[in-house]
Amino acid sequence: MLKAYLKYRKSRINAHGIHSPFVFELYNAVIKLAHRRNTDEVEVYRKELYQNDASIHFEDFGAGSKKGGGDVRTISSIAKKAGVKRKYGRLLAQLVNHYSINAALELGTSLGLGAHYLLSGNEKIKLVSLEGCMEVAQIAEKKLKEIGAKRVEVICGEFSELLQSNRFKDVKFDLIYVDGNHQMEPTLDYFEFALNHIHDESFIIFDDIHWSEEMEKAWSQICKDKRVHVSMDLFQFGIVCVRKGQRKQHFVLKY
Asked: CA 235 → CA 18, 63, 79, distances in Å?
């Protein structure tokens, strides 16, 4: 990952190098201002998770942690390894706020940090969040219901089965946030699903695009896809948009 980060640092640009009105606005209104967002409530929850040494049965359907962990893990270890970092959580909140995201889908609830950031960005957002591990999903759902019972639905199960169900047959989302199963083929499958469940102004966000060589290959393939007109590399996050009226462009943005 160090090699990928050094390459990112060498290639990244700021607002002065952006020749796209849409990306220029996103950079100035979202990326540059994300650090100002007040996400204190989310950080209180993060602290609670980091201090929770209770053990649960953890069922991992994805690539899992590179450090292992077995089938029984503490809540604190899961939160520290799988929870979205504050820097990128604030970016989610700012994007949801600025673009008035009303319908969002999250693949990979984990303990609910990412979902919490999304909910904090817009009081009108309706979020559906999928999680493979039952015990993890139950912890997240309890907290998320406290902050937005009518705005969030947590569904537990294998993503491949859930995404093929009638639940999503005719649903369109303003934003789809993919943070689960860090392997190439599943990631590309989620990408195909996303393309069929968004509109022209939607966002698809992939987490950990440089997490492994496999994820980098998946991200590269996604960026080259002819159906994607705008792709943005923020190192941890990769953001793609269809936006058919624009010429195809790829940006490596400083964040």
From this structure: 17, 19, 21
